[in-house]
Design a protein that fits this description.
It is globular and about 50 Å long. The protein is mainly alpha-helical and 155 residues long. Helix content is 65%, strand content 8%.
Length: 155
Amino acid sequence: MRHAKKAATIWVQNDFCARVKGASDDAPVTYEDPQTKEKTTHGTDDGRKACLHHYLTYTAMQAIVAGLGSRALGIRVHPGTAAAALALSFGTHYIADRRVPGHGLLEKLADKTGKTNFYRLASHGMNGAFHLDSSWHHGWETVAALITTSKATVR
């Protein structure tokens, strides 16, 4: 599940979704197409659509990897627990990645836990928001994996 998350976020997610998924009407994002150099400005609707597109590909990647992994390990996963785990992963990923400045869940959690400076760190090869985001997802992926295997049987 962890590799599926990394692959979906870093290799599968397109540049547009990565840059626009946190856009809002109050904090619009200007996107420059890498090929045409055309600049477009995006608000809440486009941010939500970009987020949804990323989570659909993210969830599909997790489903494929989990399916192949369980088959390779000889584990029969119950469809209901697999669906519940994927839904949990989808939902927690969406609420974490809608990083609307001043309103995003991870930013609020960072503020409440004294991690504001780390969240905003974006220098010296570090990106605090990315690391807090990864940590958030890894925790929920662990819960999702436990849900998935709760009714698993051996093939």
